[in-house]
Amino acid sequence: MKIIVTGGCGFIGGTLIRKLIINKFNYILNIDKFGYASDHKAIDDLLKEKNYNNYRFCRIDLKNKKKLFEIINSFKPDVIMHLAAESHVDRSINDPEIFIESNIIGTFNLLDVTRKYLKGLNDKQKSKFIFHHISTDEVFGSLDQKGKFSENSPYDPRSPYSASKASSDHLVRSFFHTYGLPVIITNCSNNFGPWQYPEKLIPLVINKALKSEKIPLYGDGGNIRDWLYVEDHVDALLLCALQGKSGETYCIGGYGERTNKLVVEEICSILDKNKPKLNSYKSLISFVKDRPGHDKRYAIDSSKIKKELGWKPKYGFTRGLEKTVKWYIRNDEWCRQILIKSKYNCERIGL
Ligand code: NAD
């Protein structure tokens, strides 16, 4: 299989690429603009280990349509897995424009050049091709205490980030209906795991705690997310891309609903066990002003992907969190370096 992954220098795209590389029958092209959250160390480490020669990285911004067309037309992918996006809600509050450029215009450019690339393929090649768009459950808005999001949930995005992702989902569907582009969309819940840039809740909390800094909890800490371990997500993505049905949407959740307060307390307990300090890490928790438009609850009904493609999470929340916290303890130098490189000091953004 010849697979293009966009956003492969990011957290989920990088985890996906590392899984794809180890199958020597795959040829992978990573397209990424290499933004502030990007990193190539995890892929470099793997490439060094076994001398894989089935991987290539092209630093391209999705806004460069000409370059995109040239690279896609010369690589001739069977599958495009589109993960490149600006992905942090707080940053979308401070600077929404870049979210419109990358997530909406960027997705449009990729769809449009893919449509042109497909025109040059024969029917057999076309029938093998799939464009897989990776999206979020945040496009569905916020839930009360009851109910879950599913493939039939209406769109109701509340932040510039989720609105830009919702818009990209609509564009992808429109290319399926209008041009017959074979597409799959997946909407997943909050991911966590090793190599995640330390601005999102879980790595930020671990990083702050290890530095004995105050751990900020937005509002009363009662917002609920359905946490999905990144390896479980990647397994689901591969199933959808390779066995999913064109035109379909699959929702992917981690069966890991927890309040932010509980997540932070669980992180502190794992740190207390594995890197004990005089006082429990819980003493660092401090409640701060809530995020504007903070969605109350996300939860996903994953029964479609479970029933149709046989997916279920292998790690789940507790095992995944333990692996993640231990990884960040071992790799605090990586965290330090990526924060220096991106000039981010874990200060509060998005107020
Ligand atoms: P990330 O921020 O870690 O990585 C995104 C990558 O995309 C970065 O390397 C960045 O350089 C690249 N990128 C951004 N704009 C680009 C552009 N214009 N051209 C080329 N490359 C560009 O994000 P992530 O957490 O790995 O998320 C990947 C995808 O999964 C995103 O589409 C996101 O919306 C979606 N998603 C993420 C989560 C989550 O919890 N992390 C949950 C649901 C969905």
Sheet-strand content, in percent, reads 15-25%
Helix content: 40-55%
Largest sheet: 7 strands, parallel
* Rough outline: globular
Strand and helix order: EHEHEHEHHHEHEEHEEEHEEHEHHH
- N-to-C CA distance: 44 Å
Spatial strand order of the main sheet: 3-2-1-4-5-6-11
Structural class: alpha/beta
Total helices: the number is: 13
Low-confidence stretches: none
Q: Give the tally of β-strands.
A: 13
Rg, nearest Å: 20 Å
Average pLDDT score = 96
> Compounds present?
nicotinamide-adenine-dinucleotide
Verbal overview:
Helices cover 45% and strands 16% of the residues. Helix 7 (160-179) links the parallel strand 5 and strand 6. The mean pLDDT is 96. With 351 residues, it is of the alpha/beta class. The longest helix is centred in the first third of the chain and has 23 residues, at 97-119. The strands form four sheets. Strands 3-2-1-4-5-6-11 form a seven-stranded parallel sheet, sandwiched between helices. It has a two-stranded parallel ribbon with strand order 7-10. The chain is globular and about 65 Å long. It has helices at 11-21, 41-50, 65-75, 89-94, 97-119, 123-128, 160-179, 201-210, 230-243, 260-274, 303-309, 316-330, 332-341; strands at 2-6, 27-32, 55-59, 79-82, 130-136, 183-188, 191-192, 215-218, 224-226, 228-229, 249-252, 257-259, 285-288. The structure holds nicotinamide-adenine-dinucleotide.
